[in-house]
TrEMBL record:
It comes from the Bacteria. It holds the Pfam family MFS_1. One of its GO terms (molecular function) is transmembrane transporter activity. It comes from Kribbella steppae. Residues 1-406 form the Major facilitator superfamily (MFS) profile domain. PANTHER family: PERMEASE, MAJOR FACILITATOR SUPERFAMILY-RELATED, TRANSPORT PROTEIN-RELATED. SUPFAM superfamilies: MFS general substrate transporter (SSF103473). This is Putative MFS family arabinose efflux permease. Keywords: Membrane, Transmembrane, Transmembrane helix. It is a multi-pass membrane protein. The chain crosses the membrane at residues 24-42, 54-74, 86-106, 112-133, 154-174, 180-200, 230-250, 262-284, 291-309, 315-339, 351-373, 379-400. It is found in: Cell membrane.
C-alpha cells in the first residue's frame, strides 16, 4: 500500500466537550444494540432442529474459528491504517448478513455460511473495540490507567444486552419459534450501525508518519514475538480467550445431555453472559498482579472444571460454568490492559488482533476434537479437555504475574 493511500483523510468529527463519558456514550449505545441477540440463547436448540449434532457443531465452530485468524489480522491492520470506526461498522454489516442467513437456514451447510459471516463480524469487532476504548482513554486522560474501568463498562453494557436478550429470546422461542428470534434481531443491528455514526473515533493511530504495509506488518509481528514482557501476556490472553470461547460454544451441550427444558436455556444463557458485565466491573479489583489472588483464581477455575466432568445436577453445572467464565473474563481484561500498555497506538489494533488470531488458531483443533470426543464418549469426558486447558491458562497467568510489575 502506498503512503498516499495510507494517509488518505478520514472523516473528521467534533469531539464532545464534556469528557470521557460523553465521548464513549455512542459506543455504549452501539454495544448494547449489537449485543441484543435474541437468537443466541436458543442457537444450539435451533441447530439441533435443522440437523446438527455434537460432531457437526464442532465442525461448524472449527470452520469459523479457522476463518477468524485471517480476518482478525487483516481487520486489525485495516483499523490501524484506515478507520477503527469504519471497521466496527463493517462488523455490523457482517452481523446483519449472518443473522439473515441464519434465519433462512434449513440445513447444516447453509447455517455454516451464517456462522462464517458471524466469524467475520467477531474478528472485526473483538480487537478493534479494545483498541478504540484504550485510545479514547489515552486522548482524554493522557494515560491508560482508566482503561480497565472503561472497557469493563463496555463489557457490562454488552452483558446487560445479552442478559435481556437471553431472557427475551428464550421466552420468544417458546411462544413463537427459535427461527423467529433471528428475524427479530435484525432491527437491533441496523440501529447499531446508526448509533456508531455518532461516535467520534480517536486519532492517535494517525498522528505519526505512515510506513509501508510491509513495514507495518513487520513491526506488528516483532512487537508480539520479540518483546519479552509481551510473550507471557500473549500466552495468558490466548489461553483465556480459547477457553472462554469453548464455554460459550459448548457449554449448552451439558444442557442437551441432561435434556433440560427449552425454558431453562434463556436463564442459563443470561447467567453465562452476565459474567461479561460483572467480570468487566470487577476486573480491576481482583489484583491479579499479586500472588494470592492469582492462586485463588486458578484453584477456583480448576474446581469448576472438575464439576463439569462429574456433576449431573443442572444447578451445580450452571454455577461451575458461571464461575469459570467470570474468572476468564477478569483474566482477559487484566492481560488486555498489560498488552495495551506495552505497545504504541500505531500498531495497537494489529497486535491485539494478532494475539486474538492465534487464540482462534489454537481453538480450531480444540473445537474439532472436543466435538468428536463429545459425540463418541459424551460431554463429561470432553470436559477433561477443559480441565487441561485451564491448567495451562493458570500456568500462563502465574508467568504473567512474575514478569509484569506491580501496579
Amino acid at each position: 500500500m502506498s503512503n498516499a493511500v495510507a494517509t488518505a483523510p478520514v472523516e473528521q468529527c467534533v469531539v464532545p466537550a464534556n469528557g470521557l463519558r460523553r465521548r464513549l456514550a455512542p459506543l455504549w449505545v452501539g454495544t448494547f444494540l449489537q449485543g441484543f441477540a435474541l437468537w443466541v440463547p436458543v442457537e444450539k436448540l435451533f441447530m439441533s432442529e435443522i440437523g446438527f449434532d455434537a460432531a457437526t457443531i464442532g465442525v461448524m465452530v472449527a470452520a469459523y474459528a479457522a476463518l477468524i485468524p485471517l480476518a482478525e489480522v487483516a481487520s486489525g491492520i485495516l483499523a490501524d491504517r484506515w478507520s477503527r470506526r469504519g471497521v466496527l461498522m463493517l462488523a455490523g454489516v457482517a452481523l446483519v448478513l449472518s443473522v439473515i442467513v441464519g434465519a433462512v437456514s434449513w440445513n447444516v451447510p447453509t447455517y455454516i455460511v451464517a456462522a462464517l459471516l458471524f466469524g467475520l463480524y467477531f474478528a472485526m469487532w473483538s480487537g478493534t473495540i479494545e483498541a478504540v476504548v484504550y485510545d479514547v482513554v489515552l486522548e482524554e486522560t493522557g494515560d491508560g490507567e482508566a482503561y480497565e474501568r472503561q472497557i469493563g463498562r463496555v463489557r457490562f453494557v454488552e452483558s446487560v444486552a445479552l442478559v435481556l436478550s437471553a431472557l427475551a429470546g428464550g421466552w420468544l422461542a417458546s411462544v413463537l419459534s427459535t427461527r423467529a428470534t433471528y428475524f427479530l434481531t435484525v432491527p437491533f443491528v441496523v440501529f447499531y450501525l446508526i448509533a456508531l455514526r455518532r461516535f467520534c473515533e480517536p486519532r492517535l493511530h494517525q498522528v505519526s508518519e505512515r510506513t509501508s504495509l510491509r513495514e507495518h506488518l513487520t513491526v506488528t509481528y516483532r512487537a508480539i514475538t520479540h518483546r519479552g514482557r509481551l510473550v507471557p501476556i500473549a500466552a495468558a490472553s490466548i489461553m483465556a480467550a480459547m477457553i472462554l470461547q469453548a464455554m460459550f460454544e459448548f457449554g449448552p451441550l451439558w444442557l442437551l445431555t441432561l435434556e433440560a427444558s427449552a425454558v431453562f436455556y434463556g436463564p442459563f444463557w443470561a447467567l453465562l453472559v452476565a459474567t461479561l458485565g460483572v467480570g468487566g466491573l470487577l476486573a480491576g479489583r481482583l489484583r491479579l498482579d499479586r500472588p494470592v489472588p492469582v492462586a485463588i483464581v486458578v484453584l477456583v477455575m480448576l474446581a469448576s472444571c472438575l464439576t463439569l466432568t462429574s456433576s449431573r445436577d443442572l444447578a451445580a453445572l450452571t454455577v461451575a460454568m458461571v464461575a469459570l467464565t467470570f474468572l476468564l473474563v477478569v483474566i482477559g481484561i487484566h492481560v488486555s490492559q498489560l498488552m495495551h500498555d506495552a505497545v504504541p497506538s500505531t500498531i495497537r489494533t494489529g497486535v491485539a488482533s494478532g494475539i486474538g488470531a492465534v487464540s482462534w488458531l489454537v481453538f480450531t483443533p480444540f473445537a474439532l476434537v472436543f466435538g468428536a470426543v463429545s459425540k463418541q464418549f459424551g460431554v463429561y469426558v470432553s470436559g477433561w479437555m477443559l480441565t487441561g486447558a485451564v491448567a495451562l491458562a493458570g500456568a500462563a497467568l502465574v508467568w504473567v504475574r512474575h514478569r509484569a510489575p506491580l501496579r
